[in-house]
Amino acid sequence: MAPPLLLLLLALPLAGALLVFALPQGDATRVRSVAALVAGAQLLFTLLCWRLPPADLHLAWVPKLGLELELGLDGLSLPLQLLVALLSTMAILAAPANQARPRLFFALLLATNLGVSGAFLARNALLFVLAFELVLIPTTLLVAIWGGERRAGAAIRFLVYGSVSGLSLLAAVLALGWFNANGFGFGFNQLAAADLSPTAQRWILALLLLGFGLKLPIVPLHGWQPFTYAQAPTPVVMLLGGVVSKLGAYGLLRFAVGFLPDAWAAWSPWIAIAGAVSAVYGALNAIAQSDIRRLMAYSSLGHMGLLVLALAAATPMSLQGAVAQILAHGLIVALLFACVGLIERKTGTTAIPELSGLLNPLRGLPFTLGMLLLALMAAAGIPGLAAFPAELLVFEGSWTVFPKATLVSLIASGFTAVYAVRLFNRVGFGRLDNGRAHWPATGWSERAPALVLTLLVIAAGLWPTALTGWSGSATAALALRSQPLLSPSAPTVAIVPELLPS
Amino acid sequence: MTTPIAAVANCPSAPLIPPSQHPWAEVIHRLEAGGSMLPDTPENLMQIIGIYKAYAVPMDFYWRDLLYIAEQVFLDPLPAFKYFPSQEYLERPNAYAGEQSKLRLWRGGEQAHPELLAFMARGETTAMPKLLHHLWHDRINMEFAEACAQAMLWHQAMGGRFNDYLESEAYRANADRAIKAYFRRNPLMLGLYQAFPEMFLEKVKQLSYYANLGLFWEVMAPVFFEMSDIYDEGGFQGVPDAMNFLVKGIFAVAGRPIYHHVFIDGECIEIIPKAEGFTWLYEAALPYVEAVFYRTSPFRGTKSYNAQAGQVPSHQADFHYGILYADVYPVGSAGIPPTLLMQDMVHFLPPYLKELYKQHRRGEQDQLIQLGITFQRSMYNVTSAVIQALRAALFYPLDDTDPEHLLANRRFFEGQMDRFLRPEARLGAIQSQDYR
What we know:
Largest sheet of chain A: 2 strands, antiparallel
Number of domains of chain B: 1
Mean pLDDT of chain B: 89
Number of strands of chain B: 2
Oligomer: heterodimer
Helix content of chain A: over 70%
Distance between the termini of chain A: 48 Å
Strand order of the largest sheet of chain A: 1-2
Radius of gyration of chain A: 22 Å
């Protein structure tokens, strides 16, 4: 396929954002429809890329700086780009029909899509940084303008953490290019063959861990997440949890594991510990929450811990599990927030103590609660749903390398069932509040985004190849350790003492 | 020194007694003025009359089938067809309605209501054999009527002599005769009766309450039909009119007999003879109101949840799960508004009530809840009629000029209202039209 297809994936959200912003004032539903059409078209073209893989695109942009328009899709980026296009469409459709200031809102959502897509399509590190930084602007504005009562604080915190993340990443990427003994440049191919001193590798990895760890996030870099997830509007939090945070995971896989394999292998025991700590910390905090959004935020933090563990293990299976976990968690967290958004829109709250009896078939939200239950079951790793094959791969792939951290993470994963059951029991059962239950039933158009995600979560659980089939060869190439039972030919990296963190 | 009452009495324009200080003083003053616990609004009148009509149609089936079970099915060990009353019972003339009735008090036909017969033929689905309607659950839910009769048996001591009679030797002898006659060609069951006589006797007691409730509803069904007709003719001017119609009806049938006869091979065995003198008001109506409107029991489906939540009182007399207390919102969490009764009534809603429900909340989607709340309002009105009837029977007229008499009435009303001080009581909710 001709290279313009890759450009089209970026041009669509850019043109769409401008078009939406230029639409006449008035009907919010029409603005939403146009935005959804744009995102839907991007989804179709991404699927086309899957069927007819396009060649990489390389255009000069600012050669003196090493900034080139290098775009490409491989086994790592294609499934993530699909996720971006899908969740953008669903997030746009999940916005209320009477969305306030719709032109700016949907334009910023498309701008977020542009940034994330640009990052996943980039084959040049500087281009990646540019796209990565771009994401911060529309998401901050979306939180600041359309967020909850404490949106100002949430937006500022999000901006501060995001800025530190961006600066760290910029510094790391510049160092990657500058300290490469094989020559100056930021192309991925060039960086993959970079020759860096152990000291440079250590510092760059530290910066990458800070930059991407803030984005994921991971303990102790998660300060922005619960607050922002609690305040951001539903479509925004669907994108934040579903795809924006996945930039961190993708970045660690692409930059840290891919470009600094020796340093990563040396630091991986500590990274695995951080992952296990995140998994436990996230799960225990989720159990203690009294607000559904904050519960989801900590749940997400816990699942990101599993992802980091898999990346740390860096076996073929664990890396495949990591990509599967990115996809599965992206779908599940978007579904969870879509359901929570519906509950909030109807009941006016996400406070768990204020909600009960929502399963009431006549005056409750039984359909929404049904989807929420399925999403919670999926998050808990119930077989037959999307997270099960992903977590299975993560645990099996990590067990041979970090058995203790894996065991701890496995126990933490079990806690997911605790907060899932607790939440559902409190919110779904019991007495429906007479004073509150005056909301209208959810319509099919409102349910549609969550319903589509529900079907995908089921489909991915029944057909796990949908999660793992994309990335098998790409992740195998990045694996740093062998998985004795499955791929005896995979490399095993020897730890260089100089690379250990000082 | 002048007493406050006398001081008030000396003033011709002032009330004869001071205002009540009871938390439900507003309702008490309304009752003292001849009103109902339900506020007098045109919409309330429309709601209660409409639901009386929707209630009366299934009730016309309930009373026929209850009597059929009590008198004909009796102790059938496999009563698979007890919800299929015979044609004789479907055509059984109502003793209190219709031209041919010797005891005629109300207008209307003496046979089963045409809407009931039409529903039995087609149901919600289509015309098909009644067994298929039954298995598809496309039918009148007799389970509700049975639950009411069982609640009356279970709560037992609610005034009157009926329950005491069930413990008497005379009743035991009559029941023994009926049991032996019923199983005279069934040695296995007779052997079981010899081994476990109390079990059989208990079942007969339950059937006596079936007969009791069947006879009670035989009276109530035509009352509600006639109220609906009068409303359609523009006859009732307000909620108190509807309540007073019920009060007059209660007195009109108060002395009608309550009995239990069983027909075995054409022979009538009188388990509770009419000659015992049990009467409609004291042996059926009042126990029914107490057992069903006030007490009942936690819904069977959620009983264990209620128990775990500490919501089941240790004393049976403290049970308050009836329609006057029921939370209609949760699925079957209370004894009587029971989803089954709502499902029965929804088939017979008058058009004006359907239209009303369409205009509120989720329209047709949640009309089961809306009509459940309407039913709750209507039963507050029925309970008001019972309270006014008791006041008339036991105390003084509302227009009595003796302050002592009015104070006696006041104490009676306040005592009745004390039962609605419980937080579960819906008396406060029905004061507002927004409660739907």
